[in-house]
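Entry:
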Amino acid sequence: MIFLLFFLYSYIPIWKIVDARWELQLHRPLRAATYYLNPHFHYNPNFKVNANIKIRLYQYLERMVPNASEMCKIDLQLESFKDAKGLFGIEAAKTARDKKTPAQWWDSYGDECPEFQRFAIRVLSLTCTSSRCEHN
């Protein structure tokens, strides 16, 4: 029992470091964009969007789409996705939300919003990297 307490106590500083870095990574614009654009999460009844998520989504949109005209189109098309209108709301799209990868889902059902579809697939297709962890 004493060994277990010592073991747990000795790792508390390490857990605090890991938690702090993990928390920092969760609040990045890319994470917010992938959370918002992932149909599995977006159409879940428990989906919560606050101002911070939207701010980070739009920060990432500005970074990835420097063309103001295209960004305006994406912003307008975002409403169709948010409200599940058109192809986003058909039964096949609803069923596939949990069956396809997010990028595949967008490829299949985002055709009515071509600029937004291109942006979403690009964001959702990015691979994760551990380069920051390796650097640390």
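Residues 28-135 form one domain.
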